[in-house]
């Protein structure tokens, strides 16, 4: 799995971390809508931080 390799994790470790994220968020990341929400939130935070630096 590309994500595991790029993160220098085994597949099992990556899946364990994803389960931890699901527990913290209280969301099933199998759902595309649920996966998109944190992605959009992180992108918005990155954009906001970049604006503050400018």
Task: Give a brief outline of the structure.
By secondary structure, the protein is mostly helical.
What are the key terms here?
54 residues; mainly alpha
Termini gap? 37 Å
Structural class, from helix and strand content? mainly alpha
Q: Taking all residues together, what is the mean pLDDT? A: 91
**Quaternary structure annotation:** single chain
Overall body shape: extended
User: Which regions contain 5 or more consecutive residues with pLDDT less than 50?
Assistant: none
Number of helices: 3
Give the helix proportion (percent range).
over 70%
Estimated share of beta-strand residues: under 5%
Main beta-sheet strand count, sense and barrel state? none
Structural notes for this entry:
The chain is mainly alpha-helical and 54 residues long. It is built from three helices and no strands. The longest helix is centred in the last third of the chain and has 22 residues. The radius of gyration is 14 Å and the shape is extended.
List the helices and strands and how they pair.
Elements: H1 2-6, H2 11-25, H3 32-53
